[in-house]
Specification:
disordered N terminus; globular; 12% helix; single chain; 28% strand; 6 strands; alpha+beta; 2,3-Dihydroxybiphenyl 1,2-Dioxygenase, domain 1
């Protein structure tokens, strides 16, 4: 019998290789300026592109985007219990993981 995970579902038979990675995360936010400040000051990313309603952030010394923030008129904070991205993790060069949730 397969081992059970934290959500009480069987562990998958197949695992992606450790070298697998996902590209940039795209997030819809209600307060673009506050979100930019958080990613710059807390996570240490920098703005590499700023267009109306969309900001792309990357690590210092790189132009490869990690996070794209988007907003639009009428976007408000997520309602409790609504679906969405709970968190994402950034693998640092030394192998440690930084998790980001706001």
């Amino acid at each position: 019998m397969a081992a059970m995970s934290r959500v009480d579902a069987p562990e998958p038979e197949f695992r992606l290789p450790d070298s697998t990675h996902i590209g940039a995360v795209h997030l819809q936010v209600s307060d673009l300026r506050a979100s930019i400040a958080w990613y710059e000051q807390i996570i240490g990313l920098r703005v590499v592109d700023d267009a109306r309603g969309r900001v792309v952030l990357a690590p210092h010394g790189e132009d490869r985007p990690l996070v794209t923030l988007r907003t639009a008129d009428g976007i408000g904070p997520a309602r409790p219990g609504s679906l969405g991205l709970y968190h994402f993790a950034i693998l640092l060069p030394d192998g440690t993981v930084m998790t980001a949730s706001q």
